[in-house]
Specification:
This protein is an alpha+beta fold. It is built from 3 helices and 12 strands; from the N terminus they run H-E-E-E-E-E-H-H-E-E-E-E-E-E-E.
Length: 258
């Protein structure tokens, strides 16, 4: 009896260390990259100009919707990203940018900010990644529904970095209301799994599957766009089966380009 018990004990220890390494190593690697990349930087003087990814509205008459993600400020950038959504109806000469920001919420400012910056600006030195770029005549209807989703967001005056609600909770909410956008938020979008109004079951943000989540702290997602994701304490692990890749906390998506 002693030998089988010893083997079970060894297996448990091995499994425990494996899970710990899968959690810690990606975060350490991401933290190292963030510190090296941001060495000597000051967020007050960091770049906030255009990254030249949004089309010029003066020469783009068609409707446009884009979603961006950029590493957050300071040490939080080793773990997560900030996301936002921009829209331009047909014929419009400028973009409208919607996002949730935590600064000032405790002093009574709204969490949802409109046109706080340009559509594709650097986020305090971090170049944004364009996640979605949708154009065409059908996009005007999507924009109207996006504006409705912004109006119905249930946490307009609330912000919590972890586990949510935050900027990624907001973009995930908009994405679920307009599933045609097919938004595949990165695993570093901490807060995307915080389901509004205490729900435990919802559509995946891309609208191509479903997810289960307990207050953004523990959950599971299965979807065509996102693949399979496990959320543990807001950190996501997963496999993208549509465009093969591994998803890791901190490091994000590693694999074929989407």
């Amino acid at each position: 009896m002693t030998q089988p018990r010893s083997r079970r004990s060894l297996w448990r220890r091995t499994a425990g260390w494996s899970v710990l390494l899968c959690l810690v190593l990606p975060i350490l690697a991401s933290s190292g990259c963030t510190m090296l990349g941001g060495s000597g930087s000051d967020w007050r003087n960091a770049r906030r100009d255009s990254s030249q990814q949004a089309p010029d509205p003066s020469t783009t008459p068609e409707a446009v919707v884009q979603v961006y993600a950029a590493r957050t400020v300071g040490w939080r950038g080793s773990l997560g990203v900030h996301t936002w959504i921009v829209v331009k109806p047909s014929g419009a000469r400028e973009y409208t940018r919607y996002e949730v920001v935590g600064w000032g919420v405790m002093r009574g400012y709204p969490a949802i900010r409109v046109n706080r910056g340009g559509p594709d600006n650097y986020w305090f030195g971090a170049r944004p990644e364009k996640l979605v770029d949708r154009r065409g005549p059908e996009v005007d209807d999507w924009i109207r529904r996006i504006e409705t989703a912004v109006d119905t967001y249930p946490y307009k005056d609330s912000y919590r970095t972890w586990p949510g609600p935050n900027s990624n909770t907001f973009v995930a909410h908009v994405a679920r209301v307009v599933p045609e956008l097919r938004v595949d938020l990165p695993p570093t979008a901490i807060g995307k799994d915080f389901l509004p109004n205490g729900s435990v079951l919802a559509a995946a943000p891309s609208g191509t599957g479903v997810q289960f989540s307990l207050f953004g702290l523990l959950g599971l997602m299965g979807a065509l766009e996102e693949g399979v994701e496990l959320n543990v304490l807001g950190l996501s692990f997963g496999l993208d089966l549509n465009t093969p890749a591994v998803k890791l906390p901190g490091l994000g998506r590693l694999g074929l380009p989407q």
